[in-house]
């Protein structure tokens, strides 16, 4: 957990390393004091940022109780606002927690008879236990998508984002931050 300031800079007390997943505000947080039950003070620390992420995770889980902790984490990190170096970095992880975008991705209905933008596993017509899976949970470009037995991992979660301007969807795996794409961007029948 990384802490950031109100101006989105990394908090000076927040450590940084490759284990950071997400950042949240950790300074200027109003809390009760131990002086009496009616006093409040502004305080700071990653101990104030962490409950924000935990509360966001609980909210996502309340909307999708079928999600595993790994899938909840994928929703939160993929809906965060990237900060610092592009992509995941040691100071901010995947970026600043954005609870409204996580909730919107799970609840925002798409217009007409189209599938709502959100997070899905995509089952095969060959059997409901087979789903689309990013082979080996790869985050590399040109990773293969394969059918695999449903195991509820982030490699099997895909985000559908409806684009009303062209009526098409973007299909993205939040774990890898990669979108489904046809190699070479060639419109050729039978392209693999």
Structural features, described:
The protein is of the alpha+beta class. The chain contains 3 helices and 11 strands. It has helices at 46-63, 69-78, 99-107; strands at 2-4, 23-25, 27-32, 40-44, 118-120, 123-124, 127-134, 145-149, 158-163, 168-173, 178-179. Strands 5-9-10-11 form a 4-stranded antiparallel β-sheet. A 3-stranded antiparallel β-sheet has the order 6-7-8, with no helix packed on it. The model has no long low-confidence stretch (mean pLDDT 81).
List the defining traits of the structure above.
single chain; 192 residues; alpha+beta; 4-stranded antiparallel beta sheet; 3-stranded antiparallel beta sheet; 3 helices
- Helix- and strand-based class? alpha+beta
- Specify the number of helices: 3
Number of strands: 11
Radius of gyration, whole Å = 19 Å
Assign a percent range to the helix content. 10-25%
How much of the sequence is in beta strands? 25-35%
Shape: elongated
What strand order characterises the main sheet? 5-9-10-11
Order of H and E elements: EEEEHHHEEEEEEE
Short description:
By secondary structure, the protein is an alpha+beta fold. It has helices at residues 46-63, 69-78, 99-107; strands at 2-4, 23-25, 27-32, 40-44, 118-120, 123-124, 127-134, 145-149, 158-163, 168-173, 178-179. Strand 10 (168-173) and strand 11 (178-179) form a beta hairpin.
Structural topology:
Layout: E1 2-4, E2 23-25, E3 27-32, E4 40-44, H1 46-63, H2 69-78, H3 99-107, E5 118-120, E6 123-124, E7 127-134, E8 145-149, E9 158-163, E10 168-173, E11 178-179
Parallel strand pairs: 1-2
Antiparallel strand pairs: 3-4, 5-9, 6-7, 7-8, 9-10, 10-11
Helix pairs in contact: 1-2, 1-3
């Amino acid at each position: 957990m990384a802490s950031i300031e109100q101006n989105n800079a990394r908090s000076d007390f927040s450590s940084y390393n490759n284990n950071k997943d997400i950042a949240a505000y950790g300074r200027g947080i109003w809390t009760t004091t131990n002086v009496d039950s009616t006093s409040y003070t502004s305080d700071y620390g990653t101990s104030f940022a962490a409950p924000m992420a935990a509360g966001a995770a609980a909210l996502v889980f309340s909307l999708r109780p079928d999600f595993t902790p790994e899938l909840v984490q994928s929703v939160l990190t993929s809906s965060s606002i990237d900060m610092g170096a592009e992509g995941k970095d040691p100071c901010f992880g995947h970026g600043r927690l954005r609870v409204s975008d996580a909730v919107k991705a799970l609840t925002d209905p798409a217009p007409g008879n189209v599938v709502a933008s959100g997070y899905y596993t995509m089952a095969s017509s060959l059997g409901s236990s087979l789903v689309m899976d990013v082979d080996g949970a790869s985050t590399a470009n040109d990773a293969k998508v394969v059918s695999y037995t449903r195991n509820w991992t982030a490699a099997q979660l895909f985000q559908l984002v409806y684009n009303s301007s062209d009526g098409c969807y973007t299909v993205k795996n939040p774990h890898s931050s990669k979108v489904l794409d046809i190699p070479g961007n060639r419109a050729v029948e039978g392209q693999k």
